[in-house]
Amino acid sequence: MKKNYLLTPGPTPLPPEICEAMARPIIHHRTPQFQEILKEVSVGLKYVYQTTNDVFIISSSGTGAMEAAVTNLFSSGETVLVVQGGKFGERWTEIAKAYGINTEIINVEWGKAVNPEEIAKRLKADPGIKAVFTTLCETSTGVDNDIEKIAKVVRETSAVLVVDAISGLGAVDLKTDAWGVDVVVSGSQKGLMLPPGLGFISVSSRAWKLVEASKSPRYYLDLRKAKKAIDKNDTPFTSSITLIIALNESLKIIRSDGLENIFARHKKMADAVRASAKALGLELFAPTAASNAVTAVKVPAGIDGEKLVKTMRDTYGVTIAGGQDELKGKVFRIAHMGFIGEFDIITGLSCLEKVLAQMGYKFTLGVGIKAAEEVFLK
Ligand SMILES: *Cc1c(COP(=O)(O)O)cnc(C)c1O
To answer: Which domain does 268 fall in, by range?
Structure first.
């Protein structure tokens, strides 16, 4: 028998209440019963998003909501500024290019957060820039960008701010309205503790003017259709009924825990993983802007990073993530988001120690777990 543990930055483990909700018989979506659920979900999403803006639900993974942000707000020939400090920053550029939108790029060294002053400088140099695209948690590098500061500099211009919070939402604080973030995109399989399949997008009234002006082609992802539907507690096409029912359960859990407590819990798990890495003599990939949602750790010299991740998963059932693209084999990533608790972290670290020891890495067995336990005891 092998018991499996999931410690990846999406998908994340599912709480039993959510599994149970998805096992119920299907209901029809054009019914008062489902409309009641959509109404509750809408309130819950606004709570998690910390906004009074509409939060639209899209039947797609997170990238579909990213695409919806691009096609609904901007037209071919316009120019946007993209912060590129990892794989998901690059995705913004790829989507924009697919729609003929010009991209100016701020290349940020992988493992670092963007300097908001750099954004201010670029916006000043080119007042024609219509938007800034960035990422809350850059999942590929384990970096959190300072969205509050970024929003502050963007608000001083006519550009709108679009944030990919797919892995950050529900793990790291993001005050959509208080900070003035125009568009926030998210997905179901990370901090929201659901299977993949739902995308979310909030749109400020400032950004809505762009939705009405955009000449980009769109049909399924047309937010004007979604707006007409949401005002009647409906969705424009067949709702992802089962996932939305599950979402309602997830939002109930989040509301009863409270966002502040959830953020504190994520910080504690992140602190524990970071302390553990340090005690093991391992280096963090992003020491200056480490995310509270996922930790990227450098693979030590002489250790095969891909084999480490593979052995933990295939031999012991503990799934963490390796590095993507240029970080392949160079880092491993331990997620601490959503329905992951302190004893999952201890299990993950214990397996990490075991496999590192088997691979010949020199350290005192147990020091990593001890360091994590000390954080949890505080
Ligand atoms: C997971 C993730 C995505 C991609 O979402 P999909 O659901 O795979 O489409 C995009 N951005 C970030 C920051 C992510 O963590």
So the answer is: 5-11+259-377
